[in-house]
Amino acid sequence: MLKENSHVARLNRYLPFDPAHSQIYEEYQKTADSLNLETVALRYLNSAAKLNSARLIILTGDAGHGKTHLCRRLIQDCLGYDEESARRLINSACNAERAIDPAPGSPLSKSIYIHKDFSELEPVNATALIETAINQEETIYVICANEGRLRAVLESETTGEACCLVLENFNTSFKSGLCVQDPRIHIINLNYQSVSGGEDESLAAEVFDEWLDDGRRWQICSSCDASVNCPILNNRKLLEASASDIGKQRRARLVTLFSALEQLGVVFTIRELLMVAAYIITGGLKCHDVHGRYRKSGWQHEYTFYNSLFTPPRDIKKDKLYNIPVISDLQRLDPGLRAFRAIDEKLINEQNVFPPGELDLMFANNVFQDPPLIDASQGIDEIIGNPSSRNERNKEAGLVQRIVRSLRRRAFFDEDCQSITELSRLGFQSGSDFIAVTKKTISDTEMHKLKSRILRGLHIIQGLQMSEREISLHLVDPAFGSATTHAAIIAGRIPARAIQVLPMGEVWAIPDDLQVSAITKSVNWIDRHIVLRFEMGTGFADLNLDMMSFDCVCRAGSGYVAEEFYAHDLKRIKNFLARLAERGQKQPDEINLFIRGAVHSVSIDNGIIQVGGDL
């Protein structure tokens, strides 16, 4: 008998493939469909609301970061309402026209005004609301606004003293790294929120725990006739953490993919996380889709999580996936597109790397009649054909390509990745160094080697071929254009000891007594970039490097950089170094020349040019 799993139907309501996906929005979500994530932002919001000094709490961030969800949870956790009542209040009483009073026995005695969308107000009304919030003591105001709208309101012509104070606090937060400058005002910036980071379990891991590990949600599938050939149930088995350690590893690798995406500068909201997780598990299929095809074999591999994530199944059109923007970003990290000889030799030539007969490794033979099914656990040995036309050759090549890419992806999620690191498999040779810096697990010796490689990379980017033992960064004078490998005019020099390699969060250097108000403690945090800090005589200058630009600099340190591929990063780095050279300009009569791999000093004495060193 064929069975319908209500949990699968629930997951499909998180996908933007049909009108039912409105459930992804907090205002339209049903309690039965809700997923109550325990975010760091929620804990900070609840603690801030309980402070006697708090007057105004601002939640700012892009659409999808969970501002409305936080407001609903605040009504539950601090005002004592049940979930159904909180949902009704979110839709009826969250325009700040009336206060929401605490329910009997609630942990908070104050009433709360909530405005869940500041873009609905005209600037004059919005500024008036902020002025009112600051100048009262009996209630708390919670305001949700994206950063653009918030700045537009705070910088409008109708602003008063309170708005100017909030704007000053907001601007200062980026420099100080603190959510609180004035104890009356708390600003929770959800644009810093990460779905893959955090001191505790990541939000991505929390979603997978909720949707995959509860056996009761999947119990009905055991009595369904389609269960043996169901790709949805197979995805659940592959990713189930409670079944085996390999399931935990596969989920950890998914989180690694998400974190790599965030460290490339991609915005990954909670809403997109829920859509991606639902898509990974279901492959965009519903139970009745499986019921119509379960007697056939060789099609399920398209809907396996590690294939559908990078190559959408043929029946899912691209315009559907445009509604999940991060899918196209994730496809750039496809491990199936990257060849490593040691891995390919093992996957293609060594047999039984994976157990035979697994559903996700069975491919329908659409080229030749024999065999009708190809077991990819045997590599490509079972593809035995004799193409007699160009069309057949292309089909055979396409089948080999699909199988090899699928094996590489499966290997990425299943193998130990000791000989070739996870991030190297995604195309980032220096990714492990990037992570070591952000997690502060890099030793002093390793940091010394990394800094030397960075210095070589910055020299190569400027066109200088210096000795590998060079202990200073030489800056080419921007007034004389790009250097050549033979000669250049050097505008300044920064010793290695004056260069620091810092995680993003360490730049703020927040004292221990203020850590409770740090931005890094107000959201699920991940260091999205590292910072090269150059200490100058007049202060310091910071160069932010995400994982892509960091890898660019480190690759350049080996002596070559692909200028077309890294064009944007190279331009930004060169401009920064040029500004750095201008800040460190020497006296007009002091000239340094780089000639044939060595730096020579030049001076003019009574009209005579003198060059130090041998030319």
Structure description:
With 615 residues, the protein is α+β, with helices and mostly antiparallel strands. It has helices spanning 6-12, 40-49, 67-77, 83-92, 123-134, 147-154, 161-176, 203-212, 215-218, 231-239, 245-262, 270-282, 287-291, 305-308, 318-321, 325-331, 341-349, 390-414, 422-425, 431-438, 444-462, 547-556, 567-583, and strands at 56-60, 111-115, 139-145, 185-189, 362-364, 373-375, 472-476, 487-495, 499-503, 530-536, 539-545, 591-595, 598-605, 608-611. Helix 3 packs across helix 4 (83-92), helix 17 (341-349) packs across helix 18 (390-414) and helix 21 packs across helix 22 (547-556). The longest helix is centred in the middle third of the chain and has 25 residues, at 390-414. The relative contact order is 0.09.
* DSSP E strands, number: 14
Bin the strand percentage: 5-15%
Question: Structural class, please?
Answer: alpha+beta
Radius of gyration (Å): 29 Å
Instruction: Characterize the biggest β-sheet.
Output: 5 strands, antiparallel
Helix content: 25-40%
Shape: flat
The largest sheet has its strands arranged as: 7-8-12-13-14
Q: Spans with pLDDT under 50 lasting ≥5 residues?
A: none
| Ends distance | 88 Å
The total domain count is 4
